[in-house]
Amino acid sequence: MKRRDILKSIPIMTLAAGIPGSIYKYDAFGKIKYAKKSIDYFEELGVDKVINASATMTWLSGSLMLPEVLEAINSTAHDFADMYQLQDKAGIKIAEMLNCEAAMVTSGAACALVLGTAAAITGFDSEKRKLIPNLPGKRPEVIMQTNHRYVFDQAITTTGAKIIEVDNEEEMHKAFNKNTVMALFFNAAESWYGIKNNISHEKFVAICKDHNVPSFIDAAADVPPVENLFKYQKMGFDMVTFSGGKMIRGPQSAGLLFGKASLIEAAKLNYSPHEAPIGRPMKVNKEEIFGMYAALKSYLEKDHDKEWQQWMDRTAKISAILDQMEGVETKVVIPQGPANVFPTLDVIWDTDKFKISGSQLYDKLKAGTPSIVTSKTIKNNMEFINVGVVLLQPVQVSLVANQIKKALKSSI
């Protein structure tokens, strides 16, 4: 008998349980249990562990999942689920928490942009779902403010839609025609570009309602404050998306799409587990859905004022260490919003005394042991670093401050 035939004859449970270092263990009833592992996969793969003193950047793996999220993932990983039922049931509970008509879990906010646009294009038309993004005739159109164009609006054109730019309310009114399927508002435009919206949230929604076309707001990174989860749907936006893997601290690969029931149901039809719609390659697994549900539940229940004070205490602790150095100044920065509204700390130094630029200090910290990633900042022709504190673990706060202090001292 060949080796592969012998392996085929061995029960999977026995085979898995017998693999050295396997995480799979079984009780007397054959149910999978998960043994505690001591393997350091960072070390095994040669991947550096990074201290995130920056922000919830995707390239830095977003944020760290809450213990409740890890528990939700681990406790649901060993059983199967009907994914149609899970998405529906989780959506009902999430919609109740967010006080909206309907909700669903997506594989991130970018996926939600694709699905929301697809929903606006196809509705409940099964033929359109099969043909998208190659629908016959003229391309569907999505209206955006010119100063809201951003790297992620490629998710819109992925559906085959064409983006129509407008600069004011009059142009927006004139832009609607029989091919218009949706209008998209990028909530963080003011934060990203430092310019005011030409069309306010309220006016944007009102114009869309005048033309009976759905409005969609991308608010991916826009909690805290927690109130933002409710703010935009109250304004009248038909669809809203938030990232799950940022400050909500769910799975990095999960997000939320919620709003008008008919649009969310149409979005589901364009998504996995349905076979071969446009959203099939972006599927979210059951553990991520459970994890996202647990993350949102925990986020809404937490004491946000207490958490804010903890962040402020971290900035004070770092400042207390760095401000002792002559020629070094720290300043707490709290953005006005609407995106990434949490405290960070500018660290500025006298470049005549410390012979190191902001970019050089950033690189030195990143290449150090441990690797610390901050943010590079330029203001008033001064280059320095900004330290994010919200993603630091408590034991890392003093460590980050002392590593910055050490790096600056070495440049004298």
From TrEMBL:
Matches recorded under InterPro entries: PyrdxlP-dep_Trfase, PyrdxlP-dep_Trfase_major, SelA-like
Record field: transmembrane: 102-124
Residue(s) carrying N6-(pyridoxal phosphate)lysine: 246
Reported cofactor(s): pyridoxal 5'-phosphate
Keyword Transferase: yes
Annotated GO MF terms: L-seryl-tRNA(Sec) selenium transferase activity; transaminase activity
UniProt KW keywords: Aminotransferase, Membrane, Pyridoxal phosphate, Transferase, Transmembrane, Transmembrane helix
Keyword Transmembrane annotated: yes
One Pfam family named in its UniProt record: SelA
Similarity comment text for this entry: Belongs to the SelA family.
PANTHER family listed in its UniProt record: L-SERYL-TRNA(SEC) SELENIUM TRANSFERASE
Name listed for the protein in its UniProt record: Aminotransferase class V-fold PLP-dependent enzyme
Species in which this protein is naturally found: Zunongwangia profunda
